[in-house]
Amino acid sequence: MPQRFEAAVRALPQRLRSAALALPETVRAQAEEIRLRAGQALTVHSPDAHAAAVTVSAEDLARTLDSVSQGSLHTVLESLRHGFVILPGGHRLGVCGSAAVKDGVISHIRDISSLCIRVAREKRGISERLYPSLLSSGKLPNTLIISPPGGGKTTLLRDIIRLTSEQGTRIAVADERGEIAACYGGTPQLDVGPNTDVMSGLSKAGASMMLLRGMAPQILALDEITAPEDAEVLTACTGCGVVLLSTAHAANPDDLRQRPVYRGLLDTFDRLVVISGTGQSRKYDILEVREPCLPKSALFVSS
Amino acid sequence: MPAEIGFVCIVVGCGGLGLTAFLRLEARVKLLSAFSMLANRLGGEIGFRLTPLPEMPDKFPALKPFWDKMDYQPYGEETYSEAWSRSVADLDLPVFDRALLTDMGEILGRYDADNQVKALESLRKQLDISLTEAKEKRGTYGRLYALAGVLGGLILAVVMI
Predict the structure, then answer these.
(1) Are residues A38 and A61 in contact, defined by beta-carbon separation less than 8 angstroms?
(2) Residue A186 near chain B (CB below 8 Å)
(3) Could A74 and B75 be called an inter-chain contact, meaning their C-beta atoms sit closer than 8 Å?
(4) Which chain B residue has its CA at the smallest distance from A11's CA?
(5) Rg (CA), chain A
(6) Which pLDDT score is estimated for A238?
(7) Between chains, do A74 and B111 touch, taking CB under 8 Å as contact?
(8) How far apart are CA A221 and CA A244, in angstroms?
(9) What is the pLDDT of residues A56-72, one digit of tens each?
(10) Which residues of chain B have pLDDT under 50?
(11) pLDDT tens digit string along A237-287?
(12) Angle of CA points B77, A97, B85, to nearest 5°
């Protein structure tokens, strides 16, 4: 784990990098976020604590962004417009500053005021116990993973993708924000298996259609359905004979049903995986979505 | 005998100076021509492929000595623009040419692809004006410098010996 931390702070100027690497190993091993704010101390956050190091200057922030883009802002600008940049190793650099807007579109973020490096954490094998229960006649059915924000949906989704891919199934991933595979230079930085094709940087709807046309996947995976057009494209995809694997923000099935975006989607999925709890006490419930003619109260049955 | 050796040394020395001046004019033409081609190539690479700048030495080896001197290290302490400027400062070119190339380093990687392409195109035109001037100078003065060196050496040697 300290190696992950080392990779995450690699783009920082030497002064900050040395200070971060001088923090106790326990802090580095558990680090989830490294926050840099102009005029404030660099802080490393982990689930149990946070540690502070040297004061960060505005020049440090600008140099970090320059380093991340390898002096080639044009290579990260599109991603920067969405507020983040993927780093080698799958870490994410969140960027905050003054947005320069031209013709209603963010052209750049200047005067960087703060940066946040989210240390990528892969949890290989977390779906292995769950996976057999998900299958229907030996195949993965249309599956939706739900949990509140920060519940571990993407981590579980990635591991299910890896496991399915390792079994020889062709999976296409519409990775709009690079959170599933975290592609860097065309290579997934997080393990998504050997039979997985990743399209990143495009909207989920756009990427899904391109993947269906071009890569002939057996399974289409996408993270965080939030917009009506995402839901529409998923509904359209089911007509193409592809199995869907996705995630959504919702604490439970009732919560899901109350959200207009998801109402029309419920019939699209066969299984729901509900994640509750956090850390070691995290719990995964697999629910079956029954025939739509059943009363809504009986829609979800714990398996 | 020492007088003859001195004569030859003066002629060769002055001839060498003239030849060096000629070679500098030749080198300026070659460098400006290479940088003009680089600006053109960069326009395509950045505008169409969004190529990261550190990949350029592989794509444009004609400027290998320049790239070697630049020695940009990703995640190093020096920014791309700083490394570029340092390498330009070492080029044996007139101040105006070096200023143009320093400007090129300020453009690279700083804007979005479209604006870089526009700025590079404008800079390439200025480089081409410098290149034309350098070619004319080479044509007019190149051989003259070399000849003047040898002749000057001969005259100096005769006068001194």
Answers:
(1) yes
(2) no
(3) no
(4) B75
(5) 20
(6) 78
(7) yes
(8) 6
(9) 999 999 999 999 999 99
(10) none
(11) 877 889 999 999 888 888 888 888 887 777 788 889 999 877 667 888 888
(12) 30
- Which of A72, A87, A93 is the mutation pick for testing B, counting most B CBs within 10 A? A72
Are B54 and B72 contacting, i.e. CB atoms less than 8 angstroms apart?
yes
A295 has a pLDDT exceeding 60 = no
3-state secondary structure B63-119: HHHHHHHHCCCCCCCCCHHHHHHHHHHCCCCCHHHHHHHHHHHHHCCCCCHHHHHHH
- Per-residue pLDDT, averaged over A12-23, amounts to 92
Residue (of A145, A221, A212) closest to A188 by Cα position: A221
Q: Of A76, A48, A171, nearest to B113 (Cα)?
A: A76
Give the global pTM: 0.77
Model ipTM value: 0.81
State how far the Cα of A54 lies from the Cα of A176, in Å rounded to an integer: 35
Provide the residue type at B42 as one letter.
L
Q: Does A75 touch chain B (CB under 8 A)?
A: yes
**Could you state, in order of their start, the residue ranges of all structural domains in chain B?**
2-160
CA A246, chain centre distance (Å): 11
**Cα dist. B47→A251, B67, B77 in Å?**
45, 21, 27
The single residue listed with the structure tokens 């094709």 is: A197
What is the C-alpha to C-alpha distance for residues A113 and A108, in angstroms, rounded to an integer? 14
Q: Give me the residue label for tokens 């995402």.
A: A230
Separation in Å, CA A40 to CA A2, A47, B135? 24, 21, 55
Band (A168; pLDDT cuts 50, 70, 90): very high
pLDDT in tens, A76-127: 988 888 888 989 888 999 999 888 888 877 777 888 999 999 998 788 888 8
Q: A71 and B54: CB-CB below 8 Å? A: yes
- Interface check for A98 against chain B (CB to CB < 8 A): the answer is no
Q: Give the number of A-B residue pairs with CB atoms closer than 8 Å.
A: 52
How many Cβ atoms are within 10 Å of B132's Cβ, its own excluded? 12
